[in-house]
Write a structure and sequence with these properties.
This protein has helices at 3-14, 24-32, 37-45, 51-62, 79-87, 100-109, 146-159, 177-186, 196-206, 208-214; strands spanning 69-73, 92-97, 116-119, 132-138, 160-171, 217-224, 230-237. With 239 residues, it is of the alpha/beta class. It has a single domain, classed as Vaccinia Virus protein VP39 (Rossmann fold, 3-Layer(aba) Sandwich), CATH 3.40.50. Strand 2 (92-97), helix 6 and strand 3 (116-119) form a beta-alpha-beta unit. The two termini are 29 Å apart. Bound molecules: S-adenosylmethionine. Residues 20-21, 30, 41, 74-76, 80, 96-99, 102, 121-123, 138-140, 143 line the site of S-adenosylmethionine.
Length: 239
């Protein structure tokens, strides 16, 4: 990215809305979308074998152990967190999202009532440093400009225990032109003004593991879905 591009990007994330969202459009979208967000996500995951299977796969990538503490940033309507709880019912989960509607939908879906879903800002959680065994960010960084992605990753590192793991799950960089085109079409890349197209492309070009390293996290493992549209990078805080 050029110096001008970096400046524009920095300005974007220093001019966050008072809600914490990067733009009025995103604020509006997440203000209204929670009633039909799950339907849209159901569609999005169809080529990957369905949402339920993918969420279970994400939960396995996180590899959380019984009794451990997990923080999920930008949890949305809570499907990965519920899959995690179903996999390891003794895990303690705190899950935050800026959207009050997302959080209320997540709470309704959590039949166990054991997951602590709450409204909060992933860039500044106010939670104690070094306090979580696992910190998870699922499919949210690609909607953020670079400087905000780094803030969120640094916050994930700050709250993660020194021997814990930060797991980021994101749009993977695809090599084949055909798979790039199919994913672009299936994931609404053609939608006029879709703001995630530029930020997702920027994330893929820079590389998720590279950005995690810039935030003080060392990538240890990488997983992908089949087809490899989504990657999960498991990392540890640098000492
Ligand atoms: C594409 S959705 C992903 C939701 C969920 N993790 C999933 O896998 O379905 C992105 C989510 O990030 C949330 N979000 C965006 N910026 C945020 C921030 N700074 N702090 C917390 N949540 C944020 C949005 O409200 C939205 O629910």
């Amino acid at each position: 990215m050029s110096a001008q591009g970096i400046k524009a990007d920095d300005e974007k994330s220093s001019q966050l809305r008072s809600s914490g969202y990067v733009s009025r459009l995103e604020e509006y979208w997440y203000g209204i979308s929670h009633p039909f967000y799950d339907l849209m996500i159901w569609f999005v995951f169809l080529p990957l074998g369905g949402e339920a299977a993918c969420r279970r796969q994400f939960a396995r990538w996180v590899d959380v152990q019984p009794e451990e503490k997990l923080l999920s940033l930008c949890c949305g309507t809570g499907d990965t967190e519920i899959a995690l709880f179903n996999l390891v019912p003794t895990v303690q989960i705190i899950a935050v999202d800026l959207g009050a509607g997302q959080i209320s939908t997540a709470k309704q879906k959590d039949k166990s009532g054991s997951i602590d879903f709450c409204v909060g800002n992933a860039a500044q959680t106010g939670l104690a440093a070094n306090s979580f065994d696992r910190v998870l960010i699922t499919l949210a960084l690609h909607e953020m400009p670079y400087s905000l992605r780094l803030k969120v990753l640094r916050e994930a590192r700050r709250v993660c225990k020194p021997n814990g793991r930060v797991v980021a799950i994101e749009h993977a960089k695809l090599d084949g032109k055909l798979s790039q085109a199919v994913r672009y079409l299936w994931w609404f890349g053609w939608l006029p003004g879709n703001p995630e197209v530029a930020t997702s492309r920027d994330l893929q070009q820079r590389g998720l593991a590279t950005e995690m390293r810039e935030a003080g996290l060392e990538a240890l493992e990488r997983y992908t879905t089949d087809p490899s549209w989504i990657e999960g990078v498991v990392s540890a805080p640098n000492s």
